[in-house]
Amino acid sequence: MRNSPQTTCADVPSVTASLLEKLRARRPRIHCVTNTVAQNFTANVLLAMGCVPSMTLSREEIGDFIAGSEGLLINLGTLDPERREAITIAIQIAADHKMPWVLDPVFVDRSAPRAAFVRELVSRAPNVVRLNHAEFTALADHAPSYDTVKAYASKHRTIIGLSGETDLVTDGERVMNVANGHPLMTKVTAVGCASSALVAACLAVESDAWRATAAALVILGIAGETAAATAAGPGSFAVSLIDVLYQLDAATVIKQTRVS
Amino acid sequence: MRNSPQTTCADVPSVTASLLEKLRARRPRIHCVTNTVAQNFTANVLLAMGCVPSMTLSREEIGDFIAGSEGLLINLGTLDPERREAITIAIQIAADHKMPWVLDPVFVDRSAPRAAFVRELVSRAPNVVRLNHAEFTALADHAPSYDTVKAYASKHRTIIGLSGETDLVTDGERVMNVANGHPLMTKVTAVGCASSALVAACLAVESDAWRATAAALVILGIAGETAAATAAGPGSFAVSLIDVLYQLDAATVIKQTRVS
Amino acid sequence: MRNSPQTTCADVPSVTASLLEKLRARRPRIHCVTNTVAQNFTANVLLAMGCVPSMTLSREEIGDFIAGSEGLLINLGTLDPERREAITIAIQIAADHKMPWVLDPVFVDRSAPRAAFVRELVSRAPNVVRLNHAEFTALADHAPSYDTVKAYASKHRTIIGLSGETDLVTDGERVMNVANGHPLMTKVTAVGCASSALVAACLAVESDAWRATAAALVILGIAGETAAATAAGPGSFAVSLIDVLYQLDAATVIKQTRVS
User: Which of B203, C21, C42, C212 is an S-S bond match for C206, by CB 3.0 to 4.6 Å?
Assistant: First the structure.
């Protein structure tokens, strides 16, 4: 994929750096309906960024938790009936509170009932859908290209954050390529899930969802590159990724952002 | 908060050191009804201390598991209907076996149904309630002070282990301040949950619940200080915390305990 | 336990090394019905070995997930009604697809309903049962010895992978002792669970289940020894175990395999 003429990327480093500082200062509460594999790592990523994560699913409580939050993640993961019900309730509450939410359709390429459920969720207007190439292909019935991803974002009036060797972020008009990142990020479970949680956190402090999505992927990508520089494998990489996110500052973000 | 005249702290270092050695020697089985975010870290903390953790929730099995254990943790965490039922059964079995149990009312400040459920649990006589300032405030309808915490402990005939910059442990009469600890402990998910599990472990080998609670908080606090000394952030801190707990010996406990 | 005359072990190092390379090359999808304590670590072990893990349990989806996989792990862990149903469905689908599956009867020694359920599962012909001494004793009504383990494997026409100071792998005829491993492996939660997942992965690329089981235990044992050499405790050991599995190569396997 090549760059698109509409892209305006010059201010991404400073926007992202400023957003990082807003996260540290405001410490938004982020409620995550996510899978049990990813919960612990996702919570630690959010804590490292200064956010306050919560993960409760029960139908009696999820309303209070979301009402007290500033961002919402919906990640399918181990999609069981309880999560399915929690997701339906959560999205309604987010809509009632005009709260931004992110959809992460994990493994939508692996099961037909899941694909049907995800299509229903997309119709309920997530601010952002973050997914990988296989998931996009299953969802859009097309392999990802600039045209198909832009068309999908336009049609569903959402932001697509497509992870890959280069990440692609588009609202259907604007397109950004995020070159930050490292292959070890695909060798640790829940890194993708945590990146969606980070998008939800960025939405809590930045109203332009396209910029918020790009910023989240830039931040995680920079942290991934930095952690990989000293890691001996995916075990130490995952540990270092949390450390680097915790220590990341605006100056480093400005220096290391690579977008086009 | 200042120290209270009733406090007797001179023997805490040696009591805690002795309790650490009892844990290593007796290896108590601790059953944990806890949230899915905290399960893995909690199990590893208990294993590092020489204990044998189990986490099963199913109504058919939880009786056998608790009957074969020496301590019980009830942590609300992601409070779903299955956990709610498991908790009710578990407390009854603990009462039948005269087994000590610890209540960790995670996020009681975040949802009204949870607060109602926690009040019901407190009435069922937990040996210890371990919680943070926001949780105490929601539960007691007062901000924590020496007076309000002591009054709450007295009224409910339990031990309160209140985590904060300085931890406070009281049975309503005796009060202890535990100064051990490090701010990074609040930047890793499940450290609070694991500290409650450690209280349950200490109750298994020490019949004075006030001393057992203080000892658990001292041990975790010392480990937190030691781990923080070399950590690059919350990722490496969490890893090192487990290592330090595993290696902690009586001499170090005696040297590093800071209580008043 | 001493070696048995039937054992043929000379080719184990090269078979295991070759199997490691097959895993890296084929990247099999392994579906894991496992407990929430072990999910994250198990996923990271499989990813480090080049495999693609999935963990979904829901009755609507588990069929699609298993049909798209090449190996299946059934681990009881926190055995709740949802997992119980998922297990029953999963085994039927595996049978329909002639897909190998591994049974890990965690904590079968701790509850009577669990023991009854495990006996039913054993009757449904798992390719391998991996368990520890306490679990074998509860399941077979005998302490493990060469004779009792061989007899159990023969009677149930399965492979037994018995973990202990020395691991024992038998199909009732052939017996192998795996001396690789380290005591720290018992101080980290989910290492046993992850070893069963690794057996499922090896079954996906090696049709001789006895060899596949031995290879999985050799690989994890070598990684454990290597990780323990530099670990400061179970926290850093668990991190390093993932790194070492990721970097493990055929030459190291050939050099370090210790079987008899």
Answer: C212
